[in-house]
Amino acid sequence: MSKLHIAWATFVLGLSVAGANADTLPLPQNLSGFSTHDGEVYFAESDAREAYFPLASNFLTQKTQAYCGVASIVMVLNALGVPAPPVPEYTPYRTFTQDNVLNEQTDAVLPREVLARQGMTLDQIGGILATQPVKAEVHHASDSSADEFRQLAMSYLGEPGHFVIVNYLRKAIGEEIGGHISPLAAYDGKADRFLILDVARYKYPPVWVKAADIFAAMNTPDAANDNKSRGFVLVTAAPVQ
Fold first, then answer.
1. I need a surface site. Which of 119, 120, 153, 177 has the fewest CB within 10 A?
2. pLDDT 10s digits, 79-111
3. Predicted TM-score (pTM) above 0.90
């Protein structure tokens, strides 16, 4: 990949993160920030990055500390170009936002008042996505393996219109703390690292994490989900009937 392409990738992401607080937490040594020298090298040599530009063009910050799942879903739906509801202040244009993606259908999966208190679980990500015309496959890490995750995620990230959302425990990769949700954007096979576009942009930048480490962070119990393990969701447009 040329330096021009790397610069363009950084520029696109930079546009989308404009206004985010630059005073983020320090990264542990096992993670590499996207805009670092190593991060640029990983992107340049990445094997699968079809998800990167659609997601970077729709990158946003979760509106509350409980909305990481909502922000991730909105990014993916907008990246897929799914027909969106109207937004009064943008009339006549339509787009998904962290407000209009939630409705009576999603309340049946996860009431908004519960979401505001505790965020969402892996299964609730799948349930909320199921209210839209997409295909969403929920994979609990305990029912998978690091190798299966790597192959599935790499395959999805390498194909246009395919996206991966991960639900993981931050402290398991050395970050501060609790469960979190964000989309993946690329995979570098040489370094065996995935790029996480962290929607908590006030807290951490996008980071490259080793495949084994992110899988271990997903393979952790979630008390809010009957102690089922966290995991990942594969998302693409619904098949044409």
1. 177
2. 999 999 999 999 999 999 999 999 999 999 999
3. yes
Placement of tokens 């942009």 in the chain: 201
pLDDT tens for each residue of 206-237: 999 999 999 999 999 999 999 999 999 999 99
107 given a catalytic annotation: no
Q: Residue 68 catalytic?
A: yes
198 is annotated as an active-site residue = yes
Q: Which domains does the chain have, with CATH numbers?
A: 3-237 (3.90.70.30)
Single out the catalytic residue among 68, 123, 140, 162.
68
Report in angstroms the alpha-carbon separations of 143 from 39, 62, 148, 162, 184.
Answer: 31, 29, 10, 22, 20
Cβ contacts of residue 39 below 8 Å, gap of 6+?
Answer: 32, 33, 206, 207, 208
Catalytic residue among 139, 140, 162, 180: 180
